[in-house]
Fold:
Amino acid sequence: MENVVPSFRRYDAPAMCTRDVAKREQYVGAWLDQKPTKFGDIPISIIYLNESLPNLSDEQMKLIDQFIEDMEQTFDTSTQEVSIADTWKANPPTDANRQSVGANAFVHDVYHTMTAFRSGYQAQFGLYPYINPVTGFRWNSPKGYRPLTTGRAEAARCVPRLAPGAHPSDN
Structure:
C-alpha cells in the first residue's frame, strides 16, 4: 500500500495516521485480509492490558466494557485483565537486567520511526499533525530514553516476546 509507515518494526502492531476514511478502509481491509478464519479447537481468550488506555472518560470506558462483553458472548469466552508492569515486577526476565527495556525499545523507536512522517506533514500542511493523547505521550516521552545499542541490550529488546525460558541468542 502507498504511504504506509511502520510505527514500530520490532513488534507486529499496526498503526495508522490518516484523516482520509477511504484510506483507512483500504488499510483495514488489507490488514484483515477479509477471509474467514477457522479456529477449530484452539481455545480463544481475551487478554485486556489494563494500563494500555490511560486517561479515558467514563463514557469511553463504558464503550470498551461493552465491546469486551460483546466479544466474550460472541466467542463464548472470558476476559483476563493483565498488568504488564505488575507481571514484569513479579517475574522479570533474567535478560532484562532490571532495565526498562520495553520502554526504551518502544518509546524511543516509535518516536524516531515517525520523524519522517512528522517532518513531511509539517512541510506539506504547515502544522504539527493531530495526535491522540496516547500518541502524544509516546512522542513527548523519548527525551528520557536512549537507544539500546550494546549487543546484550539489543538482545534484551526481544525479551517481551520470548517464550518462558528462551534466550535471545536462541532466535
Residues 40-91 form one domain.
